[in-house]
Amino acid sequence: MSGFIDDIKEAFSRRDNGLIQLILINVFVFLGLLVLQVSFSLSGKESYYTLVLDQLALKPNPAHLLYKPWTLLTYCFVHQNILHILFNMLFLFWFGQLVQEYLGSRRLVSLYMLGGLVGGLTFAALYNLVPLYRHWLDMPNVGASGAVYAVMLGAATLLPNYTFHVLIIGPVRIKYIAAFFVVVSFAQIPGSNAGGNITHLSGALFGYLYIRMLRRGTDLGQPVEAVLDFFKRLFSREPRPRMKVKYRSQTRTTYTAYSTTAEEFPDDDEIDAILDKISKSGYESLTREEKQKLYKASQKN
Q1: Rounded to the nearest 5 degrees, what angle is found at the Cα of 284, between the Cα atoms of 281 and 289?
Q2: If we measure between CA atoms, which residue out of 112, 106, 186, 109 comes closest to residue 149?
Q3: What is the rounded distance in angstroms from the CA atom of residue 17 to the CA atom of residue 96?
Q4: Are 257 and 296 in contact (CB under 8 A)?
Q5: pLDDT band for position 96 (50/70/90)?
Q6: Distance CA 65, CA 71 (A)
Q7: Helix 18-42 to helix 105-129 angle, to the nearest 10 degrees?
Q8: Are 157 and 115 within 8 A, CB to CB?
Q9: Res. 258 pLDDT band, cuts 50 70 90
Q10: Nearest CA among 228, 141, 135 for reference residue 193
Q11: What is the Cα–Cα distance from 112 to 151, expressed in whole angstroms?
């Protein structure tokens, strides 16, 4: 048991491990709610579980949002059945790996959080504005799907021709996988899970815009990173370094997708060597630096 706890502590202490941390948080919340649900059910106090869930689930009712604004974020860590969390976490793992590999852990976390927030806000807004949905203002919305769709579309926008090997079908480019699920969600808007599908689509749209803006030099995730840094410093036991003021000339740096500093494009010899390595050992044999160089070369033209 102590070994398991040590592994969990290590997962949360490691830097650039945002993907695993997001998955673990979702799993822990699911298991915690499952224990509460079973416990309250056995004791005949099911209403207590409903009360707990009401503190975490998102409802478009304005009064609920006014008094429980945190539910705009907590809902995307809540799942109520095993298949729901299983598929969401599988998709988050598959597509999140690509985003983390090329953009880093911090931007993956920002994309997830903002995708969930935008999905929740859009869900709440449409349920209050569209007459068809107004009698469902107390309909709870839970699940990471909006955040996961943001990550999926982010990965598909970042690397549209990257190939996944889909069971039975074979190799499929991720832009087609993302397009398929977006179309399915759009087609199901008139159905019983309209709120969930609205959340999917708005999260997907944000994921697309996030990468497009990032390529133009605007990082929409900076506010999230600033908040996370604040809480990290707040709970950190390490002494704060003394502030030093340095003056430097104002120089403009060129944006890169995977680094905050300007770097030159890799030369043709480097790219040829990377392509030779892919032909011999496959794409997965590349190091993170080689993948980043290959991606940057693809942005050159």
Answers
A1: 105
A2: 112
A3: 11
A4: yes
A5: very high
A6: 7
A7: 50
A8: no
A9: very low
A10: 141
A11: 6
pLDDT at residue 254 greater than cutoff 70: no
* Residue closest to 147 by CA, chosen among 194, 203, 185: 203
Higher pLDDT, residue 279 or 181: 181
Q: Which two tokens stand for residue 34?
A: 């499952």
Structure confidence at residue 201 as a pLDDT band (50, 70, 90): very high
- Dig out the tokens for 161 from the structure: 């021709």
Residue 263's pLDDT band (boundaries 50, 70, 90)? Answer: very low
Please provide the DSSP assignment of 59-93 as one string: ---HHHHHH-TTHHHHGGG--SSHHHHHHHHHHHH
* Pair of tokens at residue 286: 């590349």
Mean pLDDT of the chain: 83
Task: Let me know the angle formed at the C-alpha of 119 by 225 and 12, rounded to the nearest 5 degrees.
Answer: 40
Q: At 11, which amino acid appears? A: A
Beta bridge partners of 165: 171
CA distance 132 to 126: 10
Cα separation, 15 vs 205, whole angstroms: 28
For the chain, domains (ranges, CATH) are 2-233 (1.20.1540.10), 268-298 (no CATH)
Q: How far apart are CA 231 and CA 260, in angstroms?
A: 22
Question: According to the model, what pLDDT value does residue 234 have?
Answer: 74
Span 18-55, pLDDT tens digits: 999 999 999 999 999 999 999 999 998 889 999 999 99
pLDDT at 296: 67
